[in-house]
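HOLO CASE FILE
Compound: adenosine-5'-diphosphate
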Amino acid sequence: MSDGLLVTTADGTISKANQALCRLLGYREADLVQKNIASFFTHPADIAMNLSRCGSEGDEISKAEHRLLTKDGAHVPVLFSATPLAEESGTLLGIVCIFTDITERKNAETALREAHDLLEQRVVERTRELAEANTALTREMAERKRAEAELRQAQKMRAIGTLAGGIAHDFNNILTAILGYTQLAMQRLTSDATCRSFLGEVFIAGQRAQKLVQQILTFSRQSEQEKQPVEIHLIIKEALKLLRASLPANIGIVQHLPRCGAVMADPTQIHQVVMNLCTNAYHAMQEKGGTLTVSLAETEAADISPPLPAGDYLQLVVSDTGCGMDTAILERIFEPYFTTKETGKGTGLGLAVTHGIVEGHGGHIRVVSTTGLGTTFSIYLPLQKELQAEPVAVLEKKEIRGGNERILVVDDEQELTQLLEMFLTQYGYRVTGLTDSTAAYAWFCANRQEVDLVITDMSMPRLTGKELAEKLLAERPGLPIILCTGYNEQINAESARELGIRAFLLKPFQEKELAGLVREVLDTGPGRDK
Ligand code: ADP
Ligand code: MG
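Model generated. Tokens follow.
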């Protein structure tokens, strides 16, 4: 028999054991006889009692799982069955116990369980990996979507900018003539008060148009910028000072404007950005009141989310607790003439101009808004840590003085030459106006010691303004020259300055602007009559 078999008395004392059992336990039969069977179990406690019940009540034990303790200390798993052996009369002869070695089965079970556990662990790991991959993918898709939207937005803005900028150029030139001649007509009409006041209206309307055109040119990034290293906190403080006066009591201002590194910027334009953003914030909070927060900090590209091109940035944040915007509005806010405000209150140019200025400074603009909770605009401008900021006064106004110097004016359009002559004569200057640049050069050669300043247009037939300047400067080094350019005349300011040209005058110009520049050029640097 391959199973272990033994016979015990009613109290569990072994009286017989077969070979299979001896092999299982590692004892000889003689070692087993007279011992209590319980002592060969790993957990002997219940065995004696169960066996005695088997003997006395006839309760059989059927295939219970136990462990036997072998001679060399091993624990062998077995199926243990016991059945009483009695005579017909009922006298108990003994108890027959059978042990089936289930080591292999147990080993197989353990191996199976281990395999199962391993598999389960793998499943858990794999699930986690998949979840992570999924999150990464979702994030990547969101980022791609955002980048695409940004690109689309940039393309749209560029298209609108090109269109608007083109129209604005042409208007610019037309406005120069309208405003100039209106001013001239007004001077001639001192006696006719009615006509003069009409012309006054024309002039005011023209100036409004000029401002608008200027804004569109700023938006389409074609306006002249005068960039210099500036510390922006001063400009912001100045803007907030202006703003505070117009804010109602239920709107509070919180500002955190530490001194930060310098950025290359046009102070006037930065001032305009702050004013535009703060005015919008004010409008958004007008009904319910709230808090306007303006803060400035240095930051790195890596700390900005979603990231910007590498580098250090100056971060300007303008945040409000106002009405906020939904996505449909958010998508369009930078478009020129997009406004949700009633006529008279909004022009829809504020953010378009802001966008143009920020881009023109190599910067970036980000908006986060929640309907009903508020809006945060963040502007990032490239930091120029190594630059020393120059002190700036944004709103400075100058008194304009005239003079009696002799000025040569050259412009191929007779209207403009006359206009300049008129303007400058009023300030006391002695002016010679010529429409042909070659003739102007000849005239200059004949009168070179008489001339204190030359104002020349850029684009002229045969001899351009730049070429004329070059020839004049060869005749008389140090001669002060002002070059007039339109927006569409891309002149390399750097090379022109190297040539010796003192200043540029951008069309259309105001009388005061012209007079101021003339005085400034005449008063500064070498080149006065030698
Ligand atoms: P305008 O202020 O003249 O309407 P903007 O270009 O400055 O033009 O702004 C365009 C539109 O963007 C506004 O009409 C408004 O709907 C929305 N907007 C701008 N800033 C905010 C803000 N801080 N909170 C809520 N909406 C804003
Ligand atoms: Mg606005």
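CASE NOTES: Residues 276, 279-280, 346, 350 surround magnesium ion (ligand 2) (CB under 6 Å). The longest strand covers residues 75-86.
CLOSED: yes
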